[in-house]
Amino acid sequence: MLEKTSLPDPDNAVVIRSLGKQFGDKIAVNGINLTIPAGSFYGFVGPNGAGKTTTMSMMTGLLRPDHGQVWVHGINMWESPQQAKSVLGVLVDGAAVFPRLTGTQLITYSGLLRGMDADVVAERVPDLLRVMDLEEAANKMVADYSAGMTKKVSLAASMIHSPQVLILDEPFEAVDPVSSARIRAILNEYVNSGGTVMISSHVMDLVERTCDHVAVIDKGQVLASGSMAEVTDGVSLEDRFVGMVSSEQSGEGLSWFRT
Ligand SMILES: Nc1ncnc2c1ncn2[C@@H]1O[C@H](COP(=O)(O)OP(=O)(O)OP(=O)(O)O)[C@@H](O)[C@H]1O
Fold it and tell me: The pTM is what?
């Protein structure tokens, strides 16, 4: 179910063609093609080390690909990075969080660095702190936040400028179920209003319930992509995922791990 190569269409939120990255001998991403339709809630799944973070880092201009191209709403990421990045909100593993800022400062500076009007930023910051349930921690340093709180403040920072496309690497990891449900409701509203969201996750049930499109990758290659119905083809995403990925992997149990 690999997608056909086509010219980038600005109506698509993101188009990726032949994207590749190698670290030493390790081919992390091996010629990925993906098309993310505008207005879709797109899940990106794959086992540990499959190449999700590397792909998302290249899609968002944080990591230069060895080869291949990325267009965001028709703008070439690596030819016009500033223009392409202006339509993106990004949460990617390993990106700097500036732990000595407070939550309020982190979200505020994210908006100001995006060139937003200070009054608009000041209006939006309390809204974001409220929906992320971070009001009480607003004036604490991010260094003192829990893992889930850090995830939520980073997510708020990625949303402050109301971008056209959100690329979120594991946005719900370590986030409690109440916050997770609230954030998903906000992202759903955003998608219903025409925004595009791509999330990576290991929680198949969450991806199946939340996303309308999905891509499965393993060993740096796309195994399947398309609408959720096309990819799952009548079985659960978890069964489909395990079926696809385990047929690629071999391995026996631990014969010595017994009581
Ligand atoms: N900076 C780096 N230097 C060397 N190898 C790297 C680097 N970044 C990633 N890799 C390797 O590239 C492969 C893909 O890693 P990546 O982080 O993209 O996977 P992932 O799908 O996001 O995994 P996970 O689900 O565990 O977060 C892995 O084998 C990883 O060890």
Answer: 0.92
Task: Kindly indicate the confidence band of residue 7, based on its pLDDT and cuts at 50, 70 and 90.
Answer: low
For residue 72, list its beta bridge partners. 14, 75
Tens of pLDDT along 167-209?
Answer: 999 999 989 999 899 899 999 999 999 999 999 999 999 999 9
What DSSP assignment string belongs to 57-78?
HHHTTSS--SEEEEEETTEETT
Domain boundaries, the chain: 1-87+163-247, 96-162
- Which atom of ligand 1 lies closest to the CA of 51? 18
Q: Sign of dihedral through CA atoms 248, 249, 250, 253? A: negative
Kindly report, residue by residue over 126-167, the tens digit of the pLDDT: 999 999 999 999 999 999 999 899 999 999 999 999 999 999
Assigned architecture for domain 1-87+163-247: 3-Layer(aba) Sandwich (3.40)
ipTM reported for the complex, 2 dp: 0.98
Probe residue for ligand 1, chosen from 19, 29, 48, 52 as the CB with the greatest number of ligand atoms within 8 Å: 52
Question: 27 C-alpha vs ligand 1 centroid, how far in Å?
Answer: 10
Pocket of ligand 1 (CB under 6 A): 23, 26, 28, 46, 48-54
Atom of ligand 1 nearest to the CA of 48: 26
Sign of the CA dihedral running 187, 138, 107, 95: negative
State in Å: Cα 53 to ligand 1 middle.
7
- Amino acid letter, residue 233: D
H helix or E strand, kind and range, residue 20: strand 12-23
136 CA from centroid of ligand 1 (Å): 35
